[in-house]
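Q: Entry one of two.
A:
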Amino acid sequence: MGLKLGHLKAARVALSLVFFGLTALVFLDLGAVIPPAFTGGILYLQFVPSLLAFVHGAALGAAGWLFVAALTVLFGRVYCSTVCPLGTLQDAIGFAAGKRRRFHFRPGGTLRYAIVAVTALLLIGGSGLLLNLLDPFSAFGRILTDLVRPTVIVTNNIVAAALEQFGHYAVFRKQWAVLTPLAVGVAATTLVVVGWLAARRGRLYCNTVCPVGTLLGLVSRVSWLRLGINHDRCSKCRRCERVCKAGCIDLENMKVDTGRCVACCNCLAACPEGAVHFENRWRRVPPVRADQGRRDFFLHSGVSLLGLAGLVETNATVLQSKPTTIPEAVTGPVSPPGSVSIERFTSICTACHLCVSVCPSRVLSPSVLEFGPSGMMQPRLNFHASYCNYECTLCTQVCPTGAILPLAPEEKKRTQLGVARFIKENCIVLTDNTNCGACSEHCPTKAVRMVPYPNLLNRPLVIPEVHADYCVGCGACEYACPTKPFKAICVDGNPVHAKSKKPEPKALEIKIDASEDFPF
């Protein structure tokens, strides 16, 4: 029996490492070698993204959460011990902290139910902020995207620079990501809190803070196979209790709190007498007793929100003769292509930052307050950092929640995310009486066109003119505009994405002088 139980724990550890490694690879794929379809398969079983995608799309392909729920009904919280990457990260931190830790039984409190209920109430009220902060997959994604990935890029570029000195170019330099202080701060805080709890108290985060753990814990109370303790075999050596990172083994009463058990199988492998075993609980249904903790929670719980202040993007460097003075004052942010509308996007996105990781141009950045307080850290298009590639659809192919729907390349080229707005008072043509044309040169649809500009010096100047019907809001014009600190052209985000007109190609007018020897 000991050998079999040891194999069961080893199988769980191996499976959790596979899920952890594949999920981490999705976020840290610098070479973009993972096909988007494969990404969807890797993330299929992530509970919250799958649930949100199913609720808003009712598609069978987004029903991974149902599979997780079915596994929980049968075998308990195997999601927490194998599939959840944040759970595996906690196990790794706990393992690194050393084996001197000793766990003990901790009675379940009401805080976890309070957090779930407040999260649900905020969702009903239209705010997904708390869910975004606490969802384990999204929290893990932010840690990788905002903390680990930049470190990997720096390391990659240092290695590439070193190899270039010897004439080797096997390693390519990667574009640096624009970091948002708020997103980095939240990711760092999450890592510190989760890491400290894991090093000191095992899976306390999973059983107190994580809403997914609490929900699956409720489901696991009716699971088919649950851990039990054989009174006759148990010698109360407490080996099982000392390795139970969930603190759910009560040897005084010879019970296991199945609602908090994360199915790690540590106790099964540690018990020398085989007293800890699986029991078929469906043979006999015990009487249902009311959970007084949940009653107390609804009487005493409240909502406490933390105000977070953002930093304003500024750049004091000027390239023109004098700094511009008219702020862009855009009417609204630009949500990613495929998000359909800002309202829909902010209601589904969990801010996992997977789209931020795969974006090749690094135009997607975590927001501060652009989407409002409830949309903090949800990605937006930051045209001061870059622009949306006209041909690219990567972000539309990897979103696990369905907040960004798939778009075909031709459809994406006609999707109007916003409309460019020209601020004449900031333009170099007006302020310096010199030609520029950077915005028009970079516009892929030629929605920005240069027209003659009458001036007092009678110079042959041209100035931008925006044809809004052809604009797709890609931000290439805003990014290319050289004026500082305020741009002469900016993109106002569409609350609901529209469809632009298809650019009409113009025939080239080629004048041929037939008198020359080679008129071609």
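Q: Entry two of two.
A:
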Amino acid sequence: MAFDGLILRAVTQELNTCLINGKIQKIYEPNKNEILLEIYCNKTQYCLSINISSSLYSVYLTNFKKLNPLKAPAFCMLLRKHLIGYKISNIYTKGLERILIIELTGKNENYEIVTKKLIIELMGKYSNILLLNENNVIIDSFKRFYIDKGASRNIFSKCEYVFPFSNKIDISNFKQLENSLDNSSLSTFFSQHFIGISKSFIATSLDYCSSLYNNNFISKDILNKESYNILVQYILNLINNINTNKVICKISDNDDYYLVSSSKKNSLQVNLFLDNFYLKKQQKEHFISYRNELLNLVNTMLKKLSKKLSFIDNKLIECSNIDKYKLYGELITSNLYQISAKSISHIELNNYYTNTLIDVPLDVTITPSKNAEKYFKKYNKLKNTYNIVQKQKELLEKEINYLESIVYEIQIAETIKDLNLIYDEINSSVNIKNNKGNVPKIQKTKKIKEINSPAVYTIENFKVLIGKNNIQNDELTFKVANKNDLWFHAKDIQGSHVILITNNKIPSKNIINKCASLAAFYSKASMSSNVSVDYTFVKNVKKPHNSKPGIVIYKNQNTVNVNPQKI
């Protein structure tokens, strides 16, 4: 559900029960979209989270601590200068607009009692936080907008604050629209015409509203006078309950939330619910953002290495004809008596290896003997180049193979902790600096010293361990597993190391097939069928000298073909 005017009204009513006369003690800006106000009121410490990101805009009390930068950003410093020590005198909204107004009183530098306002506008990508003086003049704002740059109003320092314009009406004036019903859906009509009513609220409330009024015919696509009036009455009743804190938030079937009336007053239920709900959303959004940054970083390195590999392949193609230049030199040397003129650009000579004529190009600017010498030099140069480039290609292919395994790791990562470990791995194993010599900025959380837990399964009383990244793969294979345990890996493709702890027992064929299915599932071939999986004793798995994490060689393996399957 969108954080609409109804939710904001419910949050505001609860804030009025605990924050009035509260003193602002600390102000933080943990990230580029959020401000935290620590407020002490009635011997209780509260923390108000104000988020103005385009997707997570919201205001609520939070119990979760967040890491703060060592150096506070400019707007945070400005709020500290103007609001630390001030008391909250009033908290209210402008009707059902998504605008929260917090009035504060305190003493200025001249010890005079002054009033200031903190305006919180929750309007998608235009969400903003503004600090006003007692004359409604903007002291400063989190974001600045200018009419001459396409904005609908000016938002900058020393500019008079103007509320955003809206052509929608308050739902209390619903009778104005009774004769204007069109063919749009209920959710579209209400969101387009009424302030503070979101599409998602209508969508998640319809079933509840229908059962409440015993009208099973109400649906998203029906817009007639009867359904219109039923829904209006439901919302008006909800607003009355919001004003007395008789509402709660509930989770819907699609993991969204909606606001419903309650028979009793609730203390901060809406705020506490939103705190947990948005924490999960923030964690999910941060995880996706972090994962995408890592993927972008690794894919960028892969593109660079692929370009190098393409260049090397071209060099190898050029070097593939080196024997031709040696032959040219030999034929010219053995036939110098036939090449007396300097001006000959080419000559047909007998190839005594095949007894056929061959056309030999000549450089007319130098003598025949110099031409022979030139071809021998070119042959030797290309021969040396071929040996060097071939070694470079082998190293590049290993590097590319390793980075492709990192891509697989990132794709199967499930938590921020998993991503942190992957970042640590590539940071220590690969040169991830950019052209300017700086490590790309990735929002990495505090470094984790311990290794993350592997995936654990049990198959007929046999324990199975599965690595989530290359470092963990090495840990399982060479430190955790016993030499007589079985090691599984998808054949010739990136995947996790799967260890079957045998405890010196002989597993059945069924157990081996299930372990192989897990190895196929935890590989890049997880969406395929009939995947080849190698397995052998751990004692047959070795790590090459100076190899990257997760890189191993093995022998005496058996191979089974299975379908990827998670047990």
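A: Comment on entry two: The chain has four domains: 5-166, 171-261, 298-411, 455-562. DSSP finds eleven helices and 21 strands in the chain.
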